[in-house]
Specification:
By secondary structure, the chain is α/β, with parallel strands linked by helices. 44% of the residues lie in helices and 17% in strands. It has a single domain, classed as Rossmann fold (3-Layer(aba) Sandwich), CATH 3.40.50. It has helices at 18-31, 46-50, 62-70, 100-103, 113-119, 138-146, 158-162, 164-177, 197-210, 225-232, 237-240, 245-267, 269-273; strands spanning 5-9, 36-41, 82-83, 89-91, 127-132, 149-155, 183-192, 216-222.
């Protein structure tokens, strides 16, 4: 097993399906035989909770790991990893992570703390998926610095799509200062209701404005009550509602992500192995 492909699931707008996308993409990759590590990089701990753990009850978390690094300690990352019944591993999060924003201001190499932590375990996985918090602060900068690429969930509504410009500027800043190799893996449309003209118009607008420069995934994640129910049950959509529209959409997204990774490896096998 080589060095994992690290993907940040990122959008500064909340409520666009970042956590649901990260979790179910991870589960989809496992179903395709991939070894997957999920990283909950949001102090709200939604991914941790959606996989069945109460973050507030956990002594070990991403925030704790990052704190130890700022104190010149060398934590054992494996000791924090949780193992889900469906095969995904998880570095959980809780409110400890929220205090890290201020602590990182004076930390050495503050943008690379998460990157350095993940280097210790990436050799054990095919994919690392980072669920980013809905802001563009220092924790998200850490996630983008650690990532090979970013996948951007965009809700099929006007205002969430409008916020793309700010996110693109932040990605450009990360490329300039901390991670020149960061690529945009693509935009995935989420919470899509194709019965409405608004959703169709927003998707068309995204393709018009960004489709020439950025991959727009064919998979469109529909509005689905079952996806929310799955998270409440601590399961992926594949376990909770395998035959539903959301599961089929995430299966399509999974295959697209794998196909893109395989194409990238064929184009540049040296850099991928590195």
């Amino acid at each position: 097993m080589g060095n994992a492909k690290t993907i940040a699931i990122c959008n500064q707008k909340g409520g666009v399906g970042k956590t649901t996308t990260a979790l179910n993409l991870g589960a989809g990759l496992v179903r395709q035989g991939k070894k997957v590590l999920l990283v909950d990089a949001d102090p709200q701990g939604d991914m941790t909770q959606s996989l069945g753990w109460n973050g507030d009850e956990l002594e070990k978390s991403l925030g704790r790991l990052m704190y130890l690094v700022t104190q010149d300690c060398k934590p054992i990352v494996e000791d924090t990893i949780l193992h889900h019944d469906e095969g995904m591993d998880l570095i959980p999060s809780n409110l400890d992570l929220s205090s890290m924003e201020a602590s990182l201001v004076n930390a050495m190499s503050r943008e690379k703390i998460l990157d350095n932590l993940l280097k210790e375990v990436k050799r054990d996985y095919d994919y690392v998926l980072i669920d980013c918090m809905p802001s563009l602060g220092m924790i998200t900068i850490n996630a983008l610095t650690a990532a090979d690429q970013v996948i951007i969930p965009v809700q099929a509504q006007y205002l969430p799509a409008k916020g793309m410009t700010q996110l693109m500027k932040s990605i450009d800043k990360v490329r300039t200062h901390t991670n020149p190799n960061l690529k945009i893996g693509g935009i995935v449309m989420t919470l899509v209701d194709n019965r409405t003209n608004l959703a169709r118009d927003v998707i068309s607008s995204i393709r018009t404005h960004y489709g020439m420069a950025i991959r727009i995934f064919e998979a469109q994640i529909p509005v689905a009550v079952r996806a929310a129910e799955a998270a409440k049950a601590g399961q992926s959509i594949f376990t909770y509602d395998a035959d539903g529209k959301a599961a089929k959409a995430y299966e399509t997204l999974t295959r697209e992500v794998i196909r893109d990774a395989e194409r990238a490896k064929r184009r540049d096998p040296v850099s991928v192995a590195r």
